[in-house]
């Protein structure tokens, strides 16, 4: 079978009798040949897979960026809490010294 320049490669895929019947039926309904229908199905599946992979990359990048930005805020809040605790301790100590308590 001669290959066209548009589709220079070919693959052979074993299928069940039922799959072949269903492919022929679907192709007939869509007024396409089985080869064209299978090619479109493969292309759609590959495109969907690529989109999912792309989404995974975007999701992980967003998560990494958010985590990094939140870390900055966490560190700032920890420093503020430490200063507040220190200030409270100093206040209590000063308050105790002024009342004559040991």
UniProtKB/TrEMBL annotation:
It comes from the Bacteria. InterPro entries: Ribbon_hlx_hlx. This is Uncharacterized protein. One of its GO terms (biological process) is regulation of DNA-templated transcription.
